[in-house]
Structure formats: structure tokens, C-alpha cells
Design a protein that fits this description.
Blueprint lengths: L2 E5 L5 H15 L7 E5 L3 H6 L7 E4 L19 E3 L2 E3 L4 H14 L1
Parallel strand pairs: 1-2
Antiparallel strand pairs: 1-3, 4-5
């Protein structure tokens, strides 16, 4: 399983997502996985990688949190969480997604 965290420096939420993702990997017993961090620096690069805001997490190249309404660009992304809108999925949301994808392998 390849886990990528795409972000841009203008949005601080990527550090929250990075921390929560690391905690979720520990919870599911996959702290052996490396999270590949990729900084997106230009609008052109955002377009080339279909970057839909910071942070974007890709698992095996797929965005498990995509709703289809996201726009490509350098912006902070908003996620729907059990507590309301937030700048990152919760640890529990990451655990749910990672666990279901681990079972597919």
C-alpha cells in the first residue's frame, strides 16, 4: 500500500493530517508504511497531479475522501467529519479507510 500526503505550504492543515495519518497507521498495525509527503508548489503542478486542496491523501493513487465536488488548485481543503467540517479527516476516519483498503489486498 502506497500512502501519499499532498500539500502546499499556504495551508497549515497538512501537518494535522500528517499527525493523524501516522496515528491511524499505528492503530491498524501498519506503522511500517512510509507516508510520502509531496509539496505542490504551483497551479500548473496542482493541475498536473489533480491536487484538490491541502491536504490531499492518496492511497495507492486514489483519494478515498473525494466527493467529486472538489476543485483543482492551491487551496485549503475542507473535510466532513463527525464533529462537523474540518481541515483534515479524523484519526478514526483514516483508520476506517486504511483498514478497509488493507482488507482488499
Amino acid at each position: 500500500m502506497k500512502v501519499e500526503l499532498l500539500y502546499f505550504d499556504g495551508c497549515p492543515n497538512w501537518t494535522v493530517a500528517d499527525e493523524r495519518l501516522a496515528r491511524a497507521l499505528v492503530v491498524i498495525g501498519r506503522d511500517d508504511l512510509t507516508v510520502h509527503r509531496r509539496r505542490v508548489e504551483t497551479v500548473e503542478e496542482a493541475s498536473a497531479v489533480s491536487f484538490t486542496g491541502s491536504p490531499t491523501v492518496l492511497i495507492d493513487g486514489r483519494d478515498p475522501f473525494a466527493t467529486g465536488d472538489e476543485q483543482v488548485g492551491l487551496a485549503c481543503r475542507v473535510y466532513s467529519t463527525p464533529q462537523g467540517l474540518g481541515g483534515s479527516p479524523t484519526v478514526e476516519q483514516f483508520v476506517e479507510v486504511l483498514s478497509s483498503l488493507s482488507e482488499e489486498v
